[in-house]
Description:
The structure holds 2 protein chains of 2 kinds.
Chain A: H1 10-23, E1 28-34, H2 35-44, H3 46-49, E2 54-61, H4 63-66, H5 69-79, E3 84-88, H6 102-107, E4 111-114, H7 118-127, E5 132-139, H8 144-156, E6 162-169, H9 171-180, E7 188-192, H10 193-199, H11 204-211, E8 215-218, H12 222-237, E9 243-245, H13 257-266, E10 267-274, E11 278-287, H14 296-299, H15 315-319, H16 343-346, H17 351-359
Parallel strand pairs in A: 1-2, 1-7, 3-4, 3-5, 5-6, 7-8, 8-9
Antiparallel strand pairs in A: 6-11, 10-11
Chain B: H1 8-22, H2 25-28, E1 42-50, E2 56-57, E3 60-61, H3 62-76, E4 80-91, H4 96-112, E5 116-125, E6 133-143, E7 159-162, H5 168-178, H6 194-202, E8 209-212, H7 217-229, E9 231-236, H8 244-253, E10 266-270, H9 272-283, E11 292-300, E12 305-309, E13 315-317
Parallel strand pairs in B: 4-5, 9-12
Antiparallel strand pairs in B: 1-6, 2-3, 4-6, 7-10, 7-11, 8-10, 9-11, 12-13
Helix pairs in contact in B: 1-4, 3-4, 3-6
Amino acid sequence: MKFVDEYRAPLLAKQLLKNIDAITSQPWTIMEVCGGQTHSIIKHGIDQLLPDKINLIHGPGCPVCVTPLEYIDKALAIAQQPNVIFCSFGDMLRVPASHQDLLSIKAQGADIRTVYSPLDALKLAQENPNKEVVFFGVGFETTAPTVALTLYQAKQQNLKNFSVLACHVRVPPVMQALLSAEDNSVQGFLGAGHVCTIMGYHEYLPLSEQYKIPIVITGFEPVDILQGLYLCIQQLESGQHSVENQYTRLVTQQGNQPAQQLLQQVFTTVDQKWRGLGEIAQSGLAISNEYADWNAEQRFAVSDINTQEPENCRSGSILKGLSKPHDCPEFGKNCTPDHPLGATMVSSEGACAAYYHYRAHV
Amino acid sequence: MAHGGGGRMMQKLIDDVIQPIFNNPILNQKHDSAILSMPSGKLAFTTDSYVVNPLFFAGGDIGKMAVCGTLNDLAMSGAKPLYLTCALIIEEGFSIKDLQTILASMQATAEQAGVSIVTGDTKVVEKGKGDGLYINTAGVGCIAENIQVHAQNIEIGDQIIINSDLGRHGMSIMLEREGIDFKNQLQSDCADVSGLVQQLLDKNLPIHCMRDLTRGGLASGLIELATNSKHKYTLQEQTLPVHETVKTACEILGFDALYSANEGCFALFIPKSASAEAISCLQQHPLGQQACIIGEVTETHDKGLVTVETPLGIQRSLELFSGEQLPRIC
């Protein structure tokens, strides 16, 4: 497949592995930020091919994983109300709330639709003027602009029967939170390529400078990831720290500016809870007052729902790189993709789910 | 609703719409049950219900699928299909013209396989209580005395062969259902492979097992077999044939082609010594031109395991999904 196969070429990948081996003289701990990168690393077995000295930590960049339990509870509370069509991306449907998931209440009769774009939900609202259509807006700066555009259009059209339950999060604050923690072990980052496609990488320059840490904006295919690791290790070995861009085929320093403007117009930056990590300052994108009429939390009065995470889940420690999935006594026993206890098992891009799916029995 | 009530309307539906299409001497006897003559040998008997949305899709329709699926189930046990049944559950208000098209498609597919649809049933459910049309078919076939094809025959060293590329039915339905247009529209692989299997059986090849890779795709089919046969199967990722459009659609939607449904693709387990002959036999048939070896039964394994060796030489395991594949956020 054009633009994919060449980035999975085994010969090129093997050459990069040799190069990494040649420059690695001491142990390094590197975090890949994005869940898509984690999925690719585990699926292709990249972590098993790296020198033993390289320790990869699977970061918090999986939107399904880090969406706090209380938002899933809010989603269910809204979806169970009469006359509501509740629209969501597919992989949020199976994430358990405190008691059930969206798929279970769909089976009980709730009108829940999987959509591929929030604009599909907007169309449903236009087609069903007597129904309340709600879209569950989850994700990082990659998905947030499409939700912003949808809200913008809803306002332009003055579409009264449409609203969004928004739980969007930003990458730079969570990286800052990890770096400033006392138990931080991360020495280098592979930055999230698709987030930077939208946001550019200028936001990461101060982070790299302040914490003297290499950040390499990296793509998602095996060759991308190996090249990103090579660049990151090269910086670590030579005692340098800067923001480098491996994913040049999509990422520029300034990013997609119209998308950024739309984000600023529709959302406002707020403190936000993360599943497994707790509250992180300025890490959330909430619907701004100007768009309050389309905010489902207000329309359906679910702002008061405030759920605590189960205590026996170690996802916080996995997201910080303090443990690996199989270190957890619940992994594969009381915690499986069918019955996830927490963040990192709930989505296929979470570290625990990826380990379970690809190497539980190898 | 009157069409399902058992009265004159129902008789009219059967006489005017169903009977003329399936027309054959056994059905025309109009008994409560079909009376069949059976050749000697063992009997294979199977049933399956078909619910698909949309009812008409690129490469087939629910009728063709309902016939192919049951014929393929018979073929997988080494049987030559002989007779089919057809039970229809029709939603009130369903277009008679569409029903005729679907029944004609069933008849054409059955006829091509040399099989008759000999008995059936019709029920009508209230508007809103069904997706237009559901079909159940059952099938009987005969298995020659010397043929034994089942999971317990699988042995270490068996080669795993498939006849065609993977995941086309599932992804074509997904694209059609969601109205996603690709430049080269995908066609479902919906096909009756019983003729192709017969060709293999006629060669007296030492086939140990066959499995059609329908719902859940290659991965689910093989995991189920490995669990039964208590072996580890090792697949080579680079040898797995996947259509370019299926690959692209899977990348965009976050699906895995190995778990996407097929309706004309099956896996065959055969000792290494006979694998070349099996491939050349498969490749002579239009439905087997892409036949290739995708892996091997490598060792015994208590719980059964299927692994895929990545192009970088790492083995990863295949696990059953908990339900359907769901499209990802990003």
